[in-house]
Amino acid sequence: MTTAKRYDLTIDGHRLVAFGYNEDQPGKPLILLHGILASASFWPENAPGVSPGQRWYALTLPGHYPARWAEGFRRETLTAELIADLVAGAIQQLCGGQRVFLAGHSTGGFAALAVAARHPQLVDKVLSISGFAQGKWYGPLRLLQMQARMGPIGEVLFRFNVRLTMLTPRVYTYASGLYASDRGRYFAYPDLRQHVERLYADARQHDLHGMAHYFARMPDIDIRDWLPRIQAPTLALAGSRDGIVPPEQARLIAELVPDARLMLLDGAGHMPMAERPEVYEQTLRDWLG
Fold first, then answer.
1. Which CATH architecture has domain 5-136+221-288?
2. Percent of the chain with pLDDT over 70
3. Which residues of 178-193 are buried (b: 16+ CB within 10 A; e: fewer)?
4. Alpha-carbon torsion (186, 141, 255, 81), positive or negative
5. What is the four-CA torsion angle of 106, 107, 112, 113, rounded to 10 degrees?
6. pLDDT at 1 over 50
């Protein structure tokens, strides 16, 4: 069994955490970024689509357990620039001046695009999985965004509803299925139980006040103007029936990034790695190859 090495990375008072795998292997490292309310545990040691000999790191998004915001962090300072700069600072500490493959799911896909636009010297290729340029979400996440923007009472409702999805592992598993479109395939995914158990343990330790910052701020964040600055080859991969981040966002990314292509997985929703695992894994291997 591969043993991950943990890295606690401090950038401007903020702490991010990364877990490194296969660090003795040559070649460009891969950085994997998870989505909102998830954690670095979203990517297991046998991450789908990652070759056994690939050097790679699972990196937390800012503010997600076990990462933490700097002391005195204020909601209004959560911007696309801040997210990109913190993630880029973590990558520089992990990999020095070496260029990396950068892949992210959902908000992690957004962060990957933001880093590639703002710090092009760090990034060799980008994979946006169900990612976006505009942070207005839909489905159950839309309700949480609305609540987080309603002031103190709204944040109480936000925290209550997030905690409600975490009552038990069974409830958490069911709630995760709301992200999928092809729920039959999603719940039949062989590694789903282990995947959810890992995430559940981390998710219960999130600072929900910090999570409310994301949900309140993301609807106002828009990096469409940044996309033409991305120099790295980019793949926008998404489910054709994503009810959380509409596939139009993937089309937008493919249209505005100069060296980009689009791949929509027919019938899949926001969790293509579980809804269409064979196509997803082959696509990731081909892209990294």
1. 3-Layer(aba) Sandwich (3.40)
2. 99
3. bbbbbeebbeebeebe
4. negative
5. 90
6. no
